[in-house]
Amino acid sequence: MGLFRKKKEQASYDSQSKRPVIKCSICTGEQVAGFQNIHNGTFEDVMLIRGKEDMKAFREKYGIPQDAEIPKIY
């Protein structure tokens, strides 16, 4: 039997009501990628960002172009 590779599934988000953002801690510098509700400002965290590879993985998972700016909130 051959080896099967798990196909990477692209996750999605509602771009009409949410926008991708990076939430940064002023004290620790910790960065968390997630989505902010455009209407009420609530933040939904998705993953911890420890470096460029994590940011690349976040963009790929949700189909966010590499050249698109992701704003930071504090």
Nutshell version of this structure?
This is Aspartate dehydrogenase. The protein is built from one helix and four strands, in the order E-E-E-H-E. The protein is of the alpha+beta class and 74 residues long.
Structure characteristics:
74 residues, alpha+beta, four-stranded mixed sheet, 1 helix, 15% helix, globular
Write the layout of secondary structure elements.
Layout: E1 18-24, E2 31-37, E3 43-49, H1 52-62, E4 72-73
Parallel strand pairs: 1-4
Antiparallel strand pairs: 1-2, 2-3
Count the beta strands: 4
Q: How many strands, which pairing sense, and closed or not: the largest β-sheet?
A: 4 strands, mixed
CA gyration radius, whole angstroms: 14 Å
Oligomer: single chain
Strand order of the largest sheet: 3-2-1-4
The string of secondary-structure elements, in order, is EEEHE
Strand content: 25-35%
* Overall spatial form: globular
Structural class by secondary-structure content: alpha+beta
